[in-house]
Amino acid sequence: MQIDRILRTKGPTVATVSPSATIGDAARDLARHGVGALVVSSDGERIEGILSERDIARGVGLHGAEILTRRVDELMTRDVATCSMRDTVDQLAEIMTTRRVRHLPVVHDGRLAGIVSIGDVVKNRLDELQIEAQTLHEYILTGR
Questions:
Q1: Which residues contact 60 (CB under 8 A, 6 or more apart)?
Q2: What's the pLDDT tens digit per position in 43-100?
Q3: What is the DSSP string of 49-113?
Q4: Which residues, at least 6 apart from 12, have a Cβ–Cβ distance to it below 8 Å?
Q5: d(C-alpha 26, C-alpha 8), whole Å
Q6: CA separation for the pair 81, 91 (Å, rounded)
Q7: What pLDDT, in 10s, does the model give residues 9-29?
Q8: Helix or strand run (H / E) with residue 122
Q9: Residues 73, 114: Cα–Cα separation, whole Å
Q10: Across 29-40, average pLDDT
Q11: In angstroms, how far is CA 3 from the centroid of its own chain?
Q12: Burial letters for 28-65: b for 16+ Cβ neighbours within 10 Å, e otherwise?
């Protein structure tokens, strides 16, 4: 399955944060949106970085609570792995595993078009397995 189908189901909404926002503000945004990562973008279209819960936890571990007053662009990951609408779920799973990331922004025509999480990948795979199991069960019962 291609990523465009996942985005049609979940929608293109992406929680973003300005690079000049504080880490404390970003942490509140993560909680408010119920997400594990924010795409860092000044304009909502161009990806400047990504900030995850993991980044914040590491920042607190290294710098203590003081990290909450620092800017997002001081802590964000700048080398962001992305994907396209035509990529497959299997390709995303490989990128996520290799890069050890849980969120991949989707880029279309050079602009931010959505985000896919490891949860989306797992849900997709479970849905595929359920369909396969149902098909096999029907085949066994009916012979067709």
A1: 67, 68
A2: 999 999 999 999 999 999 999 999 999 999 999 999 999 999 999 999 999 999 999 9
A3: EEEEHHHHHHHHHHHGGGGGGSBHHHHSBSS---B-TT-BHHHHHHHHHHHT-SEEEEEETTEEE
A4: 113, 114
A5: 27
A6: 12
A7: 888 899 999 999 999 999 999
A8: helix 118-142
A9: 21
A10: 97
A11: 12
A12: ebbeeeebebbbbbeeeeebbbbbbbebbeebeeeeee
Q: Residue 46 has what pLDDT?
A: 96
Retrieve residue 139's tokens: 């085949």
Rounded to 10 deg, the angle between the 53-63 and 23-33 helix axes is 150
Predicted local confidence at residue 72, as pLDDT: 98
Question: Residue 2 gets which letter from DSSP?
Answer: B
N-terminal to C-terminal alpha carbon distance within the chain: 25
What's the confidence (pLDDT) of residue 111?
A: 95
pLDDT on residue 14: 96
Determine the Cα–Cα distance for residues 90 and 1; give it in Å rounded to an integer.
Answer: 8
The single residue listed with the structure tokens 């049609």 is 8
Q: How far apart are CA 109 and CA 21, in angstroms?
A: 27
